[in-house]
Amino acid sequence: MFSNEEIEKLIKAGKIGAEARDLGASLVKPGASSREICDEVENYIIKKGADIAFPCNLSINEIAAHYTPGIEDDMKIPSMGIIKIDVGASIDGYLSDTATSVIIGDQFKELAMSVKKALENVINIMKPNISIYDIGKTIEMSIKSQGFRPIKNLTGHTISRYNLHAGESIPNYPDRTMFYKRLRPGTQVAIEPFGTFGKGFVIDGPKAFIYSLTGRKPKNISEDAKQLLEYIEKKYNALPFAARWLIKEFEKSKVEDLLNELTMQKALVDYPILIEAGRGIVAQYEHTFLILNDRVIVTTL
Q1: pTM for the whole thing?
Q2: For domain 211-273, is the CATH number 1.10.10.10?
């Protein structure tokens, strides 16, 4: 169960995450730089006294998740589509995770609203000991009733201290294997419905700009790679980080090769950009929930 101090930190992380999310949404305009948006969002989190729980994700149209600007990569906001902003804050390792969709043009409004409604419907039914199956059923029904598809291989997830994905997945459909699994008091969970008019599942894209530590310490790596690994361990703990963050401390021309070396040696895991398999536009909304004995707190409203 959470102590009062832990609840205070989790609520603070949620508040800062929500403010950063809304700031990011306000900056999304056609032609805007994804790098400038993410930099401003991340700097806001730091200015508010928190750490960044994971790199600001700014995923455009058929890109469902895991896009953050790379060392050289800087996507521009298009003149039409859905832009997902997924952010989180950390207070002493107590995390928040929240997302919203910005609709540019009216063409995809119904899709986005179906996903937003799915999350609202989950908020309305959420309670201690709720079945994970019931959450998935609510999400799927909300999205399908409007003629769209939930993305079945993207899920919500439990969260623990310094651990954004703490073991239990929350499917966006009624998975029968989850019928008897429940969200017990003392659980923190992110619920994040994704919807599309595409095939309803995502595939890995060719690039990755987000990484995290595996805990493995390979011996046969270059001295430069060893120095980078030590820096990452000290700076980011077990939380995800962006390749672009490293060029503040390491030579820009070397960082990508060193990350590849550490990934090949399994000291790091990379997170490829996730793309809707049918290239369908994707919408996403997300909140973080604290399950207590007698109530549920949504920390990112």
Answers
A1: 0.96
A2: yes
